[in-house]
Amino acid sequence: MCNKKRLGQTAARLLVGMAVGLAGGALAADSIVPVNWNVTPATNGAYRETFESAPTWDRAVVTASTNSRATVARRGLGNTWFPVDTDKALTLPGDASYTNTLKYTGGSANVSFADTPVFVDMRIQFTAYEGAPVVGDAKLAVFVSAADKIHVVHNSGTTTNTWPDGNLLSAWHQLTVRLEKSGRCAVYLDDVSVTNNLTPIVGGVATELKSLVFTGSGYADDLYVSHGNPNYAGGATPGSIPAGANVTAGTVSSVTTNWLANYYNDGSLATNANLSGFPLDSAYLLNLAPTNGNPVTSVTFGVSAINLVSPTNVIVTCRLNVSPVTPSAITGKIRLKYKSEIGASWESAQGVTQASAASFSNGEANFSFAIPAGNHFFKAQIVE
Predict the structure, then answer these.
(1) Who's near 34: CB < 8 A, 6+ residues apart?
(2) Sequential pLDDT tens for the chain (384 residues)
(3) Which of 56, 59, 78, 60 minimizes the C-alpha distance to 69?
(4) How far apart are CA 214 and CA 11, in angstroms?
(5) Distance in angstroms (rounded) separating the CA atoms of residues 212 and 104
(6) Three-class SS of 101-170
(7) Which is it for strands 47-49 and 31-32: parallel, antiparallel or unpaired?
(8) What is the rounded CA–CA span in Å between residue 384 and residue 371?
(9) 157 Cβ partners below 8 Å, 6+ apart?
(10) Per-residue DSSP letters for 166-193?
């Protein structure tokens, strides 16, 4: 997208992180971005918009596209995210801005990329824009000025690249913006890097995505916003470990698989990463990031003692030993279960207690649980 109307000053652009209502008019209804991307079915892990009907955006209208999208090659997961038989697109008339506000489930929080990357992905057909768009407090703007010039506006100015095919204005493309955990961002076109390691424009919370704004003329379709990479290489289901990864750590729980897959998903691990012998389940509970040739040689994290200190109080002692590094955070939670008879069902005492690295002194930490008075059998667990 990008345009040419309004005295040549209307940008056909994608603005990431605009303040709600900045485009003017009534505020749009929130589009819900799932917190968890590694779920089944995969489509439950992303906000998707096909534009086959008018979305609940500010001033959004939908008309049939007059341009074929067949020129955009679908990725391996393309048919997972969107159906193949759609024929409409978001059509921009050049004299209005369309705003889509984003929230997590329940509308309780803005979409955050402080801990997990956020991907904004779409099919797009640009029209030329002369000049530079009025960015406001957007985090990022992308526009095209000529058949071979693509521009990204960011905190330090505008980065301009030459697109070698010379077809920026004559074909549909796949535009991807990746908002990084580091607070930086990257832009891809047709899965080829346009620019990366950019600092977003300062506005609001540095690592929050509030809305998308489309301004100008052109077409957009198959919009996708998620913590999961739409071009994920792991297979048909996000959350799986890519083929070729050397993971031979014995039993790996399903929650550990999802946790590990996230490192492949956000680019921290190569698809052929060698994690042979790396204690994955322990690393998951300790939130130790895996790397090729990881220096972790020894991990011990478990329950070492259960003491009934009074009729209604039990102390669970845990042991932690990680060599040669120390975890900065612990994912695992301590849970105490009890029952009064061997054949009875287990009951949980006070739910679960979150452990932390700071809880441990000389490798040990004590966790207190209240129980009803009486004779009991006990079982302590470390759970995700």
Answers:
(1) 44, 45, 46, 47, 104, 105, 226, 227
(2) 333 222 223 333 344 432 222 223 334 568 899 887 777 777 888 999 888 887 878 766 666 665 555 555 555 555 678 877 777 888 776 666 777 888 887 666 888 888 788 999 988 888 887 666 666 667 788 888 888 888 888 888 888 889 887 788 878 888 899 888 777 889 998 888 898 888 777 666 778 888 888 877 778 888 999 988 887 665 556 667 777 777 765 556 766 777 787 777 667 787 788 777 777 777 777 777 776 655 555 677 778 889 999 988 899 998 887 776 666 567 677 888 998 888 888 888 876 677 777 777 777 888 889 888 888 899 888 876
(3) 78
(4) 9
(5) 15
(6) EEECHHHCCCEECCCCCEEEEEEEECCCCCCCCCCCCCCEEEEEEECCEEEEEECCEEEEEECCCCCCCC
(7) unpaired
(8) 22
(9) none
(10) S-TTTS-EEEEEEE-TTS-EEEEETTEE
Helix (H), strand (E) at residue 8: helix 5-8
The DSSP letter of residue 281 is H
Q: Cβ neighbours of residue 174 under 8 Å, at least 6 residues apart? A: 72, 75, 121, 122, 123, 124, 188, 189, 190, 191
- Tokens 């919009």, residue? 223
For 120, 132, 171, 283, 294, the CA distances from 143, given in Å and listed in that order, are: 15, 8, 15, 43, 41
Distance CA 294, CA 260 (A): 14
Q: Which amino acid is at 276?
A: S
Map tokens 């929050």 to a residue.
Answer: 208
Contact 116, 262 (CB under 8 A): yes
Pure H helices in 167-296: 254-265, 280-286
